[in-house]
Response regulator
Amino acid sequence: MRLLLVEDDEMIAEPVLDSMRREGYAIDWAQDGRAAELSLGNGVYDLVLLDLGLPRKDGIEVLNAYRSQGGEASVIILTARDAVDDRIRGLDAGADDYLVKPFDLNELAARVRALSRRRTGQKQPVYTHGELTLDPAAHEVTKSGVPVPLVPREFTLLQVLIEAPARVFTKAELEDKLYGWGEEVGSNTIEVHVHSLRRKIGAEQIVTVRGVGYRLKRCE
């Protein structure tokens, strides 16, 4: 899941960004309606956290335009506008859920997970590769039927690899999948994640293609 937060208030945005990153999501931040439209035009997002009272273009206008252009990402509206009419306008414009500020970050995370399960349940299968099985909807990994506990970014890394097991992913591609704009990524961060994941699923499961990147081992 790659998320886009559209919020002009830094005091609200920073805790949301930190919370979503702790949950293991790559999340980008747009601070006004025009920037949101440019970001959404890339078509890379699975879920959008959208404020309504934005500079340069109102959130409802952004949402209307996005849906009219075929945008399919789930949308949670985050706003101080708590009038019923405003909620109805947001939902009619194509929002999937609604939270009124101030909101609890744990509740926001739960709603993001719920929409993620809904999306993955509709669009993604359970992935099996050799001894490994990854279930995106249940957020579970097993090896030979035994559960493997992974932290969120390890899970995301394995999901990226298992979705295209024959493909070699470069370090830059993996960084883009695991991290959002502006997040500080150390030079050996991906290597650390790969090392940690190998300890849990078996070192032989992830192959290093020297000078290129990483892929899953080939099944016999």
About this structure: Residues 83 and 174 are 42 Å apart (CA to CA). The first strand starts at residue 2 and ends at 6.
